[in-house]
Amino acid sequence: MAISVKVMERPEPEETSYLRAALSGMALTFKHLINPVKVTQQYPEEQTDLHPRWRGTHRMEVHADGRPKCVACGLCPTVCPANCIRLVGGEDDQGNRYPIVYEIDEFRCIFCGMCQEVCPVEAIHVGRHFENAEYTRDRFVYDLDRLMEQEHPTTLLWDPSDPRSE
Amino acid sequence: MAESNEITLTIDGHEVSVRKGTTLLQAAQEIGTSVPHYCYHPGMSSPAMCRLCLVEVEGAPKPMPSCVTQAQDGQVVHTESELALDMRRGVLEFYLVNHPLDCPICDQSGECKLQDYVHEEGREHGRSREPKRVFGRDDFGGDVLFYGDRCVMCTRCVRFMNEVEQDSRLTVVERGNRSIIDTFFEEGLEGTYWHGNIVDICPVGALVSKDFLHKARAWDLDHTDSVCPSCSQGCNVSLHTRDNLVQRIKPRENLAVNGWWMCDYGRMNYEWINAGHRLEAPLVRADGDTRAMGWKEALKALLERAPTAAAHGVKAVASPHASNEDLAAFQALVRDLGGEDVLYRLRVVENERPLKGFPNLARRRELAPNADGAELLGMTRVGDDDASGGLDEVADHDGLILVLGDDLDDQGEEFGRNAACYIHLGAHGGTAPANAHFLLPVTTFAEQEGTFTNRDGRVQRFWPSMETAGAARPPWFVLGVLLAERTGAPAARSAAESFAQLSSRVDAFAGLTYEGLGARGAVVNETVSLTGGG
User: Fold this and answer.
1) C-alpha angle with apex B440: B437 to B446, nearest 5 degrees?
2) B109 — contact with chain A (CB < 8 Å)?
3) ipTM of this predicted complex?
4) Does B136 touch chain A if contact means CB atoms closer than 8 Å?
5) Assigned CATH for B283-523
C-alpha cells in the first residue's frame, strides 16, 4: 500500500513571530509606567479607606475618669449569636454596676455588630479596623483593659441622616 | 341554679362559675386571663391601691379594681376592652413618670412586672418632660437593699411584714409624689427571719437581695423544682442555677407546706452545694496506699472484702440529709450484709422560727430535710443536738463500718482505724473519711433525683439541677448495684424504680409512686414523732 503524505503548510514567519506581541505588551507596560492615573494602593505606606459601616474588632468607650462606660447589663452576651462575650458583673467602690470581667473572643466573633446595636449605654463598639495580627492565639481574647485601650474609629451602624434606611 | 355558693358570670365572652366571694381577678385567672396587678397578692390583703387591675364591668359607672370587686351572678366583665386598656395604659404612664428606667443595671430586669406590663399594654413613648424625683438607695438591713426610685408603691412589702411576718418593720412615709417605703429609725429588717420574701414579692426592682446583687441576669438562670434541704419543714423551692452553680433559692408555691414563702436561713444556705472540694472518683485504700479507681474495679474489690469483714459485725451510720431512696437502699444493703440497726445523727437547734401569718410554717428545729424519712425506715437517732458524738462504738468497731452522707466532722483520725473494712459514701472528704478503705463519691441532693419526707410525713420530690461532680453517682444507684450483685435481683435503673422498691418494702410508703407524688408531694400513711426531738 502506498503511503500518502499530507504536506502541512506552515505560516509565514511574519505571522508567527512573538516579537510583535512582546513589543505591544512592553508598550502597554511602559504606557502604565508613565500613566498619571494610579490604581495600585501602596499599602501599608498608604492606608486603606474603610467604609463608614465597616465592622472590625471591638473597642470599649471610657468615661472621662477612665472607667469603662459598660454597666454590665448582660445584653451583649445575651444577644451575641457567636457566644463570644464573657461578662461577670459587680459593684465598684462608688456603688456603680460595672464589669469585673469583660472578654471578647475575636476569633469566635462574627462581627455582626449586634453588641453595639443592643448596648443601652453605647459602651461596646465594633471598630473600623482590620489589622489584628498577633503571634499567639490567646492574644485574640481581648480583655477589658485591651478593649479600653483601642483607639480606632468606631463603626457607623446606620446612616445618621437616614436611620431607617429609607 | 339553686341557692348555692356558685355564681356564674361572663368574662371576656367566656362563662365562668366561681364560688361566692371570689374576686374578679381570681375569676379571670380561672379562665386563664391574667389581669395586670401589683398590690394584689394571693397571700395577703388587697388594698386596691395600685389601680392597675382596672377592668370594665357592664353597668358599673366606672372601671372597677378587679382585685377587690367581688364577682356577682350574671355580671359581664371585659378585661381587654378599649376602656379597660385605656385606663391601664394611663396608670402605667403615671408609673413611668418617676421610674428611672435603669433596667440595664437593675437586678429585676427580665422578671420585672413593670417591664412586662408596659411591654404588653403600655404606651410606646413617654410624654413626661418634668425632671424625675430621685431617692437613691437605702440599706434596709438584713439581706435587703431598697431602690426608692424604682418603687411603684404597691406596699406588698409593708403588708407582708404587717400581716404575714407580723413584725411591723416597714411603713410608708410622706405623701403623694414623695411617698416612699421606709424602716423605723435604724432598726431596719435586722433580726427578722422571713424578710427575704419581700424581695420575691416586690413586683419591680425596688427591693433587691444583697446576696444576689449584680450576680446574674434573670434570663440566664435555669430553674429547677426542688425541696429546701435546710430543715424538716420541707419548703418547696426552685433552685436557680447558672454555669452549674446555684445562684439563689426561691420559694415555689405549695399551699399545703409553705404557701409562697420560705425563711432566710433556707434561702441563704446554698453555698455548700457549690463547694468545689468534692470527691470525684472512688478512692480505695489497701496496704496503706490510697488509689483512685474506676467504679467497676472499686465495687468488685469492695464486694470481695466486705462480706468477710461483716462476719465481725456490721455498724452503719446514715445521714438525714440523704433522700428516702438513698436511705432505703443503704438499709437494704446493711441488712443483707447481716447488720440490723442504722444510726443517724441530727442537728437540732434551740429555737423554732415560725411565720405567724401562715399556718404550720416555721424554720424548724431539726436542721435536716429527711429525719422523718430515716424514722419511717426505722433508723435510730444517736448523738447530741449539734449532730456530734454517739458514734464511739462505731469508731472502734473491728468489723464492717458503712457510712452514708455523714461527713463525720467531729470524729478524729482514729475513726474506723480498727475496722476490717470501712466503706464511706460521701460528697466531700474529711479527716475521718480519709481512713475509709472504700471512699465512694456520691451526689448531693442538687445533682440527683429523689424524695424527702418532711416533718408532717409529706413525701416530696426534687429534681437534679446540676451536673454531677466527676464520677460521683447517686447513692441509691451505687447501693442498688452492690445489693444486686449480692442477691442477683435487678438493680434500680432510675430514682423512680428505687422509690418503687422502697414503697413495696416499707409499709409506711406503701401506695406511693413518683407519678402520684407529682410536684406537690403526698403524705405517708402514718405519722411519726422524732425520737429525742421533743
Assistant:
1) 155
2) yes
3) 0.80
4) no
5) 3.40.50.740
